[in-house]
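Hello Y.,

Per our agreement to keep a running log of every chain we model this quarter, I'm adding this entry. I've kept the format consistent with earlier entries: sequence first, then predicted structure.
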Amino acid sequence: MSASRAFNHSEVRSAREAGAVALLLLISLLSLRAQASDEADGIAFFEKRIRPVLVERCYECHSVQAKKSKGGLLLDSRKGLLTGGNTGAAVVPRQLDKGTLLNAIRYKDEDTQMPPKGKLSAEQIADFETWIKMGAPDPREEDAGSGTRQTLTLERAKEFWSFKPVARVAEPAVKDKNWPFTPVDRFVLAKLEQRGLKPVGDASRHALIRRATFDLTGLPPTPAEIDSFINDSAPTPEAFTKVVERLLASPHYGERWGRHWMDLVRYADTAGDNSDYPIPQAYLYRNYIIDSFNADKPYDQFVREQLAGDLMPHSSWDQRNQQVIATGYIAMSRRFGSVVDRYPQNLTIDDTLDNMGKTFLGLGLSCARCHDHKFDPISKEDYFGLYGFFHSTKYPFPGIELLKVQKDFVPLIPAEEVEKLMGPHKAKEAELEAEVKKYQSEMKSTEKEKEKLQAQVAKVPKEEQAAIAERITALERRVNEIRGPMGAATKKLEQHRNAAPKIPNAYAVSDGKPADSNVHLRGEPDKPGELVPRRFLNVLGGKQLPPDVAAASSGRLQLAEWITAKDNPLFTRVMVNRIWQHHFGRGLVSTPNDYGSRGSAPTHPELLDWLAGQFAERGFSIKQMHRLLMLSRVYQLSAAGDARNEVADPENTLLWRRQRTRLDADTLRDTLLAVSGTLDRTPHTEPHPFPPMAKWGFTQHYPFKDTYPTTRRSVYIMTRRLNTLPFFTTFDGADSNATTPRRDSSVTTLQALFWLNDPFFHEQAKAFSARLLKEEADEGRRIQHAYRLAIGREPSSMEQKALADYLPQTRTKLKSSGTPAEQIENKTWESFARAVFRLNEFIYID
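Predicted structure for the entry above:
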């Protein structure tokens, strides 16, 4: 269906029919193929969450190494899982109700409870369910028991494209010398000419300003902005340069590109533990991200601050605080469980390493937690060499079910001021704690003596039993006497703690006790192997901390410098590919978080290296990269098709046209608010209205679930890890539990139904209708105004003609259905507004 098609005489008959037509329209407009799920992510999930459990809890009885395979079931190969044992397949991908494995680990049947020595944790069982829903991805193609073998060894990695140094690439020669605007165009055109293909024509100015405005701000252009560009008498390249500069200077630029970064670093306002404890201070890190993009902070500095800002020099207290807040990146690592004793800090560090590897290096590191990486040149020693940096780091504690207080947050005022405020409070707290401990000690000794006497009473002569019973009664009275004042003292201590002076602090990290880490055998922290010095990946040089640095600090600053070094080929390649992806809909490397052997090779390797070189030479300026890409001719191409090109390159990997893209969930919501006139464009610089810590009673069964409605941009919405808002779930929002390198663009009936029935959608249609009625009295101009606001163009003559029938028919239908006369006009335009919001052009960008 044509993108410009809106209404048809035979389709638009009534308000009721318009709803049905809209559903068909939406289904048709969502007919673009959804992006395939990233296979590498599924394999990483298996390696990180499934294989360690199989090795630790199942291989003893169900592997070729076992003395006897129980039930004929082998779980040390993919074939073994799918074939199963005597009772059938252990796993049937994507079918939870089939296969024997889930039933066994859930302990549903007394005869098949596995592992027999103890049930897996609820979280481990949930991981198996998630894995099976994903299709049970499993890279173990070898025969059972053959072990793991790296596809890429250190030696072979020297010849693998992503680990080679970034090459200095000359611009290629092209036949059509008049076509390119920039060097980027030469690289693209050279590939096309090699295949005998030609790019399509240039985009219209209407399409171009809409494309650029969404790309850089995530908001639609206003009619005034469109008119300014359309009416600019300068040649399009010159006029478009002005548009790009204006958009880069907009404060909304940082909100849009900050959101991209928040996707990568799995930003959330809650911790992700079983109770999903809130983090009121998290917004400071979000604001740091947005401000950094707006200020065009050099990317290498941006990354160093997030890894080691607390260890970097500073010239002012404000700079120090911003650098500390930047380490919210590490603090943002997910928390697990609900217990205090044996708190699973290793899982939080693993989450840090997983995200760091994928975000900055395009490498999945977690697969090496239990064994050498099967595919990439990363050993378990590499993994634990990195683990030591974060094992030596003090993470803030956000609170959990069994300890409902924050600890180890980093103060944003000098230590002497903290001591001045907290000194008297701590002294009083120590006094109250001593009182509580006194009662606890007396209670414990009394209970112990009572239990001892109760054990003796049956062993002594009857004449002595009465005296012992009397003593037991006296002790029980004493227990009751102690319980009251002990409870009062405990309550007084809690009240004192909750009344602590408010110290401005950040959800950030600081250095802990420096220490290298042992290898965790089979990934288990309580099974230490050899000690591994803190160092970088061998494939990237393997630099090791000097002894004096290793003894004095975590070494995160040195790690940050190794990651951001100009001779690290992954650092620049990964980021320029991300920038390209957000401008062109797909990266030159289509697996943006996987530059290893399972990832995709670049479609334009010379262009990727040329861009990586330019990025470093231009001071790691992200805004300079926007200019370089957006002012190219390939960026300004039309999205129109070409029959010959479609046959030769149906996936458009050679970039002969513009890739049509769907608005992501955040942009879709923001656009609805912007067009309806309800968007609050002011930044949200204050904390969310979380309840005071004294009232935190969140548990695994009653986790934090608050929502704080807002009409500000989606980037400012309070984000929960365990309970995502339905709008973002429906339209493929980011997963705040793991890095999201690219948003999916799924096509589901649920989306169509949401667009028809959700109250938020209808509220915005109502507000849009009210705006139109207020701003334009003439019906014809009102329709034009609606189109310009929503999709940036005038309605076609066909659309105007269709609406000339649709509007009066809708009024007639409303009247005949009993709608009060004073509501008919509003309802008519609300129906029109809903139809406009369902247009292809509203949801897709050409």
